[in-house]
Write a structure and sequence with these properties.
Elements (H helix, E strand, L loop, with lengths): L1 H42 L1 H9 L8 H12 L22 H30 L5 H39 L14 H18 L2 H10 L5 H6 L1 H15 L5 H31 L1
Helix pairs in contact: 1-4, 4-5, 4-6, 5-6, 7-10, 9-10
């Protein structure tokens, strides 16, 4: 009997080790994908920085032109038109530009490889799923990747430009005594944080899906506290876009509210499907 138990324990241990080995190779392939994207971006530094990273520092940036046109079309005049200061970013150390180059290339590699990383995650958990669960998991990869990329675009084209231009032009007083000399490190930190946070926030429907599956969240709860969610969204929009005009705040608040409504629909869908099963 003891020999049989030892045999079963060894079999379970081997199975566990096999799972670890499989996970390791999924992680290795994900890391290789991130590395390849990062290296590619590293060598296309002029495009990466002059076109992408420093794009919001240029007056002809697509978001500024679109927002200005939107303001005119809704009769708000030049309220949504932004005037960009001369783009001068200073560095305070000899190595700052090099390490910034490496960091942005790595960050870009992570963003571009994100769908593939989720695909590798799906391949890892697929053998443990039932046939009825495999298809929803596949859709999770597609939807989560799409939401993340939409969030990245939202943060880059709307969230960051509006916030940065308000902050860089903000003056404590009209005396002109205080001058804002922005550093490269501050600029990179602000744009990378805002873009990544936006991408993560747009994963709200995915988070709600799993919380509902676990029985932690229900659509009734989200509907009951919708008015409080609206207040939180408006406060968040006011903080994210410190510009005092309401139109700019609505540009941020409306997509966030739509995410909340979509999340309610997702939660209701999960509850309905669980009842049918």
């Amino acid at each position: 009997m003891m020999a049989e138990n030892n045999s079963e324990d060894l079999s379970l241990q081997m199975t566990f080790m096999q799972h670890l080995d499989a996970l390791r190779w999924h992680l290795v392939r994900s890391a290789i994908a991130i590395f390849l994207f990062a290296v590619t971006l590293f060598f296309f530094n002029n495009f990466l920085f002059d076109t992408v990273i420093f794009g919001p520092l240029k007056q002809d940036f697509v978001s500024y032109r679109a927002l200005c046109s939107l303001g005119h079309s809704i009769g708000a005049g030049d309220v949504m038109c932004m005037s960009v200061k001369d783009p001068h970013l200073q560095t305070l150390s000899a190595s700052e530009q090099f390490f910034t180059h490496m960091w942005i290339a790595l960050l870009g590699g992570i963003i571009l490889a994100f769908p593939y990383v989720l695909y590798e995650l799906w391949k890892f958990i697929k053998p443990a799923l039932k046939s009825s669960e495999s298809q929803p998991a596949k859709w999770f990869v597609i939807i989560a990747s799409l939401l993340f990329l939409i969030g990245i675009f939202f943060g880059y084209f709307l969230l960051f430009p509006m916030s940065y231009n308000f902050l860089i032009n903000y003056q404590l007083s009209d005396s002109g005594i205080v001058h804002t000399n922005n550093t490269l490190d501050d600029y990179i930190s602000l744009i990378s944080t805002m873009v990544l946070v936006s991408g993560i926030v747009f994963e709200l429907p995915v988070l709600v899906y799993f919380l509902t599956r676990l029985g932690i969240l229900t659509p009734e709860f989200m509907r009951k506290y919708r008015k409080y969610a609206v207040v939180v969204i408006l406060i968040a929009a006011a903080v994210i876009t410190p510009s005092p005009d309401v139109t700019s705040q609505m540009v941020v608040a409306v997509p966030m509210y739509l995410l909340y409504e979509v999340s309610i629909f997702v939660s209701a869908y999960v509850i309905k499907k669980n009842k049918l099963n």
